[in-house]
What we know:
The chain is an alpha+beta fold. 36% of the residues lie in helices and 28% in strands. Residues 6-338 form the FAD-binding domain.
Amino acid sequence: MADKRDLLILGGGLVGMTLALAAARKGISSHVIDRADPAELTAEGFDGRASAISTASWNLFSNIGLDSALEPFGCPIASIAVTDGMKPGRIDFQPEAHEGSLGLMFTNRSLRLALFEAAKDEPLISWHARAEVIKRERLEFEVAATLASGERLEAKLMVAAEGRNSPTREDAGISVAKWDYRHRAIIVGLTHEKPHGNVAWEIFYPAGPFALLPLLDAPDGKHRSALVWTVNEKDAAGVLALSDRAFLAEVDKRMHGVFGAIALDGPRSSYPLGFHHTAKITEHRLALVGDAAHGIHPIAGQGLNLGLRDVGALVEVLVEGMRLGLDPADAQSLTRYERWRGLDSFMVAFATDGLTRLFGIPGRLPSAIRRFGMGVVQRTPVLKHWFMDEARGMSGTLPELMRG
Length: 404
């Protein structure tokens, strides 16, 4: 007899596996299918990226029981410094003591390890790793995926969580608005002489943002941060080809000595930056989550958090519908998910795209105008708190799993 489950989640990355675990905590079963090998994804040095987990996203992890596994690896973000090329007029976002931090920084490896370990022991999750989907079916009363092995997995609702180039989204014929920023993000870990003080730096240059994100000190006591340096695509190959010494000299020049002497902590990697947003995030017996639905510039570190908000909203909609005896793919439930997430994800995408373009305008006059505006925000507590609530993910209608 086929092992038919409630959800068929295609993609077992950070968003897809969080969805499976959040659903399981509410009694919803799933098949999770992913092409990748978990051992490779969690190997040392596989992925040097780090993610800022907002307050709302941390609430989600806590509410599904991952806080004890993750907490030792998270570095609190006490404040965010935003500056136009390190010129006068910066903004310092620092919450009141009773509001806690602005979020936590984790290496992607730490997040994967915690998620995969929890999924391995969850009976409501049937995890199919290193599996290739060769056929997707969305029928009247069920969905199914046939694997290269010949196995056919059945469920009631298909969820696409495969990332920006989602084949499930393409197979469903959902149109996507997208463009290439012609930028590339260069990712690398740094060790540095001075402590970062739990400050995340967002330094804007005309070529793109230069972000320094605080990480926990290394076991040997070295201070560490993650660098996300955005460069023009035409310059990326040259920057990546620099010797370590020359690369560090370029990085040091843009840091203006805020952390003292620096050294590389791991290999450099890079990926192209683009924008995409789907016309809709649901279809017959199908829902999109995470980058399958929307891909944004990493300028504000909101990409993963946006996907986790999809998770919280989708699980809440499913739970409420199934409590009333509705099918997980009930059209009204999916419409509610579409309305809940469609506007929020579009507004975040629109804002990050606007910031990217605004700070990309070169010249003294645009810089002076930007810094004047930043000075106004710095001196206006109401505006600063609004921006901080947005960064913490605590604005708008929050799913139950993302509340404190």
